[in-house]
Automatic annotation (TrEMBL):
Chain segments annotated as transmembrane: 168-185, 192-211, 239-259, 271-295, 340-359, 371-390, 421-443, 550-570, 576-598, 658-678, 728-746, 801-818
A GO BP annotation: protein transport
GO molecular function annotation: oligopeptide transmembrane transporter activity
Record-linked InterPro entries: Oligpept_transpt (IPR004648), OPT (IPR004813)
Keywords noted in UniProt: Membrane, Peptide transport, Protein transport, Transmembrane, Transmembrane helix, Transport
Subcellular location: Membrane
GO cellular component: membrane
Protein name, entry field: Related to Oligopeptide transporter 2
Membrane topology summary: Multi-pass membrane protein
């Protein structure tokens, strides 16, 4: 009956637009009579609907059950829903979202009471019925997540222009221009980057301009007319253009491979040609797209995969393009989304000049070290630059600890911060106990060092060709040593990989099994990729033709062929079997990685894993390590980028085939542009000074330097020697795997075990075990070890605690307190505040860089710009401060006779 009523009374019966204001509010008794009448008949007059909508609209807005722009649509669903169907929806939601950390806790408690009836819920029948149906309608017809509701609509118009000439033109032109610019400046330190958020601001006025000036010329293909100007610039066109440039508007992920291979100060390989470069680039870039397509069932269509990182982009595009209802008031604020974004952008654009140029001490607010700048212990524990950063207020710079904090869920941010604090304490303990000679090295450095404390020069151990280790030179120079934070970080990564793989697999076993089965059926029988997903957004997306699985498989195979040709046809000294090994491992780790990113905004980096494996596979072969790392890291990073954009298209109702075409074309053009630009730079840049530390324009190629150093340390020195030097590191894999398995099993099966014990044990025995074991363990039910330990990975090279401390304050305020107390304000403005501040920093930083680094040198030499760098904290950052001096013997570490020699 309920389904029949929904079909018999469509939303537009009374011609109410989503922005229409409801003014006439009838009395409760009159509305209740109308509601009772509605239950007995399917014919509802416009007058009756208007009165019902007015009452329910007021009630919905008072209870913050939906964004006000969507209230009218949700009201129709509330009116026509039976009580039994509402209960069925909520019971299913309780089961489906059990253990979902993003599902609002208060909402879960509320719906658990609602399904038990009005007496348990504690409200009168009329209010109970409204709350019951309202919660069910929002879950069934919109989204249970306020984050998603704030950036999406519960309805879609498939006729809205999307894949148009002007959206392709603007997206590709801006992508091409920014790819060239970002590639040119990528070797620079600091780099200058035009971000996707900045491009969103440029695309919108261009699209609006095109809508005004282009003629309505078009052609008809298969019964569909395609026009140069199909009407006003639409939100879908804006999102489609965003997806085109968002996926590939910068230098490709393998650019450092070409620099290391070609430049004379590195491998100096003259055989590197454009043909080799383009095949390698296309192989790595498109392989990610193929993997992303096959992962749709795992991390795009499930409603629990919310992808927080996409919300600012969606919110900003809505503010730029979608018209708003005037006069809308949320928690006392009536400012439009566009105006709020512009004020946020302007405020941060102006403010960023203060910490970045006028008053640098606000950027690095190491105020405790000002008391005694040369106090070593104070600098190492509290310092911003080279210290650990235990400082309750470490910065006034949004770019240090603000960006991303209004996107990451609070449960994820607080757990990661806890791991940062814990790991920082462990590193300090390691340092002051001289754990594996760490006290002779700066505490938080990402450099490698010789046994006399100088920075390790890898060229001192290379043979004449520069592609391997000369044993005699190595015996004289010695192995590399690492800081306490660096060694800890390596161990933390080694533990995190198996921990995440096992824990996520156990926690999501049923959904993973179902997704694998659906993928098999999709490939074998060409079934729909949506499977059993029946949330509102998946139902709306079913109106569009899907991308067939074999399309993505074809992309995978073509990418694999290109990779094989690149490895076989050119002297890269890397066997083809490594490509298959990397692909297999990437497929194993990509699913848990994507699940973490989709739910907790935590991403797994794979460079450490593949550096380690290549160091085992190819001892003494640094070039093979570079190739293996490039493939392993870029397969996964590109796949996650593609998946993220596909989820963004899912939210914006962009046809899946349009997303596929746009991504394919954009990536293809991007590869040719960034390779052409890099080759031009190598051939023409300042008479061979590219990637030299004395480069006058600061094009020092930090990424290439680090990759080359890693290639020597892991590829030439070898992982076996590395583990001989630090023998505790291999045990980290075992510890991480055990933690992931034990924690996953306890969390998943603990409640069932407790229930079984309650049934079988006596009341007294169970009470004792419940007090001392079950209840304490239940306190950790919310804890996710994979998310938690991700916070322990962020050390070395200045990335210390100050980059998180102030951010956790922001996360608590916006992602917890305001989100719960002022829901409508949070839904309307939160992601626009993040976008406005990020864009303000980006544009302000670009202007300052061009003004002061490329123009006349301007330096404000006053106390506010020098105090933070005046002490031992900054000396440690520059590798010039250690706890212990070099021993009288002239070296620390292993004696020359004990150097690792597993080559």
């Amino acid at each position: 009956m309920d389904d029949q009523l929904e079909k018999s009374v469509p939303f537009n019966d009374r011609e109410v637009s989503k922005n229409e204001e409801i003014t006439a509010v009838p009395e409760l008794e009159e509305v209740q009579d109308i509601v009772d009448n509605v239950k007995q008949q399917s014919d509802i007059t416009p007058e009756m609907r208007s009165k019902i909508a007015a009452f329910y609209g007021r009630k919905a807005e008072e209870d913050h059950l939906a964004p006000s722009a969507d209230v009218v649509y949700i009201i129709d669903k509330i009116i026509l829903m039976t009580e039994q169907k509402a209960i069925d929806i909520l019971v299913k939601a309780i089961e489906y979202h059990s253990g979902d950390p993003n599902f609002p806790g208060p909402t879960m408690e509320k719906i658990k009471l609602l399904v038990q009836g009005p007496k348990i819920y504690g409200m009168e029948n009329s209010d109970y019925e409204f709350d019951l149906k309202a919660e069910a309608a929002i879950i069934r017809y919109h989204s249970p997540y306020p984050e998603v509701r704030s950036v999406t609509d519960p309805f879609d118009d498939p006729t809205t222009p999307c894949e148009t000439f002007r959206s392709y033109f603007l997206g590709l032109v801006w992508m091409a221009g920014t790819t060239a610019l970002n590639t040119f400046f990528s070797p620079r330190q600091p780099a200058i980057t035009i971000t996707a958020s900045v491009l969103q601001l440029l695309i919108a006025p261009c699209g609006i301009f095109f809508a005004k000036v282009l003629p309505d010329w078009g052609i008809t293909v298969f019964g569909t007319r395609h026009s140069l100007n199909p009407g006003p610039w639409s939100y879908k066109e804006q999102m489609f253009a965003t997806i085109i440039f968002n996926i590939s508007n910068s230098v490709g992920g393998v650019y450092y491979v070409y620099l290391v291979q070609q430049l004379p100060q590195y491998l100096n390989q003259k055989w590197v040609t454009f043909g080799y470069e383009i095949m390698l680039a296309l192989s790595t870039q498109f392989f990610g797209l193929g993997l992303a397509g096959l992962l749709r069932r795992f991390v795009i269509y499930p409603v629990t995969a919310i992808w927080p990182k996409n919300f600012p982009t969606l919110a900003l595009n809505r503010a730029l393009v979608v018209p708003e209802k005037k006069g809308e008031v949320v928690n006392g604020w009536n400012m439009s989304r566009y105006r709020f974004f512009m004020w946020s952008f302007l405020a941060m654009f102006l403010y960023f000049w203060i910490p970045n140029f006028l008053f640098n001490a606000l950027h690095a607010f190491n105020w405790m070290t000002w008391i005694a700048p040369n106090n070593f212990n104070l600098g190492m524990v509290t310092g911003f630059y080279g210290g650990m950063g235990f400082n309750p207020w470490a910065t006034f710079d949004w770019n240090v600890a603000g960006t991303g904090m209004l996107v990451t869920p609070f449960f994820s941010a607080i757990q990661q911060y806890g791991a940062r604090v814990l790991s920082g304490i462990i590193i300090i303990a390691m340092y002051y106990s001289n754990f594996y000679w760490s006290a002779y090295i700066p505490i938080n450095s990402n450099e490698s060092f010789t046994n006399n404390g100088t920075v390790y020069d890898v060229t001192q151990i290379l043979n004449d060709k520069g592609d391997g280790v000369d044993i005699e030179k190595y015996k004289s120079y010695g192995p590399p040593y690492f800081s306490g934070a660096n060694v800890f970080g390596q161990g933390a990564w080694f533990a995190w990989y198996p921990m995440t793989l096992f824990y996520v697999s156990i926690q999501h076993y049923e959904s993973l099994k179902r997704a694998f089965y659906d993928m098999y059926r999709g490939i074998r029988y060409r079934n729909s990729a949506f499977g059993d997903n029946d949330d509102p957004h998946s139902r709306m997306m079913r109106a569009y033709p899907e991308v067939a699985d074999w399309w993505f498989i074809a992309v995978l195979l073509i990418s694999l062929v290109l990779g094989i040709v690149a490895l076989k046809a050119y002297p890269v000294d890397t066997p083809v079997w490594t490509l298959f090994a990397v692909v297999g491992l990437s497929a194993v780790f990509l699913i848990p990685s994507a699940l973490l990113l989709a739910n907790a905004n935590v991403t797994m980096g794979f460079n450490v894993l593949f550096q380690l494996l290549a160091g085992y596979w190819f001892v003494g072969n640094p070039e093979a390590l570079i190739i293996v790392t490039a493939y392993g890291q870029n397969f996964n990073s590109q796949a996650e980028n593609y998946i993220s954009d596909q989820k963004m298209g899912h939210y914006a109702k962009i046809p899946p085939r349009a997303v596929f075409r746009g991504q394919m074309i954009s990536v293809l053009i991007n590869c040719f542009i960034f390779i052409g630009m890099l080759d031009w730079m190598v051939d023409n840049f300042d008479h061979g000074t590219l990637c030299e530390w004395n480069n006058p324009q600061h094009f020092v190629c930090t990424d290439a330097v680090l990759v080359f150093a890693s290639a020597i340390e892991y590829g030439a020195f070898g992982a076996k020697n590395f583990f001989t030097l630090y023998p505790f590191l291999p045990w980290c894999f075992l510890v991480g795997g055990l933690v992931g398995i034990v924690w996953g099993v306890v969390q998943k099966f603990g409640p069932h075990f407790k229930a079984a014990c309650r049934r079988r044990w006596s009341e007294g025995t169970f009470a004792t075990w419940d007090k001392w074991m079950f209840r304490p363990l239940e306190l950790f039910a919310w804890f996710d070890p994979a998310v938690f330990w991700a916070g322990a990975l962020n050390w070395t090279g200045g990335n210390n605690l100050p980059y998180a401390t102030n951010g956790i304050y922001l996360s608590f305020i916006f992602m917890h307190y305001i989100k719960r107390r002022y829901g409508p304000w949070w839904e309307k403005y939160n992601y626009l505040l993040e976008a406005g501040f990020d864009v303000g920093v980006a544009i302000s930083g670009i202007i300052q860089t061009f003004a002061f680094d490329f123009g006349p040198s301007v330096v404000l030499n006053w106390w506010g710009n020098t105090v933070s760098t005046a002490g031992v904290d900054y000396q440690s950052y520059n590798q010039n401060a250690t706890l212990y001096p070099i021993p009288a013997s002239g070296y620390f570490g292993l004696a020359p006779a004990d150097f690792p020699m597993k080559f």
